Amino acid sequence: MDVRSQISMVFHLDKCIGCHTCSIACKNIWTDRKGAEYMWWNNVETKPGTGYPGKWEDQEIYKGGWKKSSGGKISLKGAGKLRGLLNIFHNPHLPVIDDYYEPFTYKYLDLIEAPAGEDQPTARPVSLITGKPIDIKMGPNWDDDLSGTPDYARNDPNLQELSPAEQEAMFQLERMAFFYLPRICNHCLNPACVASCPSGAIYKRGEDGVVLINQEVCRAWRMCVTACPYKKSYYNWGTGKSEKCILCYPRLEAGFAPACMHSCVGRIRYLGVLLYDADKIESAATKHNNDSSAIDLQMDMLLDPFDPEVIHSAKENGVADSTIKAAQSSPTYKFVKEWGLAVPLHPEFRTLPMLFYVPPLLPVMASLSEVNNIKQEKKLDSIAKSWNDNWLYDTSTEELWGTIEQARFPLKYMANMFTAGDEEKIKEILKKLMAVRIHRRSVTVGDISEERSQATLKDVGLTPEMADDIFSLTALAKFDDRFVIPAAHREQAMEMMDFVGTTKGATGFGIKQDLKRSL
Q1: Range name among 30-44, 137-151, 269-283 with the lowest pLDDT average
Q2: Which of 61, 291, 426, 519 has the most CB atoms within 10 Å of its CB?
Q3: What is the CATH number that goes with domain 18-253?
């Protein structure tokens, strides 16, 4: 058992309000400079929608992630040694600037310096790349707060497996809904970007699993941009280097939460340590067939930080006591492993992402029952009359979980995003979330009997104590409860730097390369 530690994240989608404060915080710190104008290391997408860059989830277009060969091994879809060599001077699977958006600003001085005239002066949009006037066609979240639009929502790749009737039902005015999907780098356990880099510039830190790009080694082959199925590696056209989210590791080392998490208005973000068995990485990435077993295999890698055998193996592997203690208090461990509420985004990409999502328990929609309503009090127009003659809302259900099936989003849509198509896993999570709500309503309002509340919790495998803990961490958690950051050990860092000074190699970053190879 090769026990290692990984900084992991959980995003609770029921709490995201789509304010983009996280995106702006990240932009102001890391990507507010030449060559990075179009980059959003943190972005918030509206679902259904095509996202940023457009249709990033469709790997038939971008060839990101891993694929399974007939021999049972996995290989990169659009990158790799041979494929990368053949496409080293022309990569046909790279997203172009129009897939993201051409960054722009406005000539604000025109508002001040325009000569007097009869018309109100306007500030023309100009490209931040060329400096020339442009017509704005899209932005990083051009479909923000939209649902049902032909250009965006209806082109969501997750809708492909839904029947035409199911798709049409999602976009009816009475059923129309959307939710927000914040995204950052997943800092995967099997990162395709690391495997694709011809220069060996991308590595995974041994102490916390953060994936970084060594700017001195990067040669801008941009294979990492193709290989990452989440499209969270970017090319800086100003410096000629690739860049990506660094999980604000300087802040983590100082005990502070990453900027996007610290600034989150909805308090949807949680950060903590997970212990995992690195010996199971290969089997977790290769054994499934792009189905729900991907999640089961990934969850099987995650270890109990209270298990004496796990603790012993972790210490033997150099995991610090402070990191083990942080893992025992980790909110991500509770959401992901203990409560089974959080799942990864598109596990079928085989990168083993360490960013997990609690799916949204959206407002349920009343079902429509056909009736013959012959009573008409007033003369109505033909459309309203036809509606009243044929339809009536029915909000009742005799089944305990009837409303789960009536959710505004088909379970299939949510399953395509989070569970590789397994609707039962999504249904199980939504039932747990609803059971917690029923329990808390029984406690605070009292209009639901304790017997029914207990039966509801028992049906989903929760106890009242667990339900209260879920409620507390979801609704009432303080800063230190949401972010459990292990202490950084500067003494170990100094030892590493001393070792680097004595390590031979053209790059001078031998220890980092050794760590990368060992992972």
Answers
A1: 137-151
A2: 426
A3: 3.30.70.20
Instruction: Report d(CA 194, CA 75) in Å as an integer.
Output: 13
Query: pLDDT (tens digit, 9 = 90+) per residue, 251-309?
Result: 999 999 999 999 999 999 999 999 999 999 999 999 888 888 889 999 999 999 999 99
Domain parsing of the chain, residue ranges: 18-253, 268-362+407-482, 367-402
Task: Kindly compute the dihedral angle of the four CA atoms of residues 252, 254, 260, 263, in this order, to the nearest 10 degrees.
Answer: 140
Q: What are the strands, taking DSSP E only, across 184-221?
A: 202-204, 211-213
The SS3 assignment for 413 reads helix
Query: Burial of 103 by CB count in 10 Å (0-12 exposed, 13-18 middle, 19+ buried)?
Result: middle
Q: Where are the extended beta strands (E) located within 262-416? A: 269-277, 343-344, 355-358, 367-370, 391-394
Q: pLDDT tens, 403-432?
A: 676 677 888 999 999 999 899 999 999 999
Q: What residues contact residue 517 under an 8 Å CB cut-off, 6+ apart?
A: none
**pLDDT tens-digit map of 175-193:** 678 899 999 999 999 999 9
Strand ranges (DSSP E) for 147-237? 179-183, 202-204, 211-213, 233-236
Which of 135, 99, 84, 351 shows the shortest CA–CA distance to 235? Answer: 99
The architecture of the domain spanning 268-362+407-482 is 2-Layer Sandwich (3.30)
This prediction's pTM = 0.87
Q: What number of CA atoms fall less than 13 Å from residue 433's CA on the CB side? A: 23
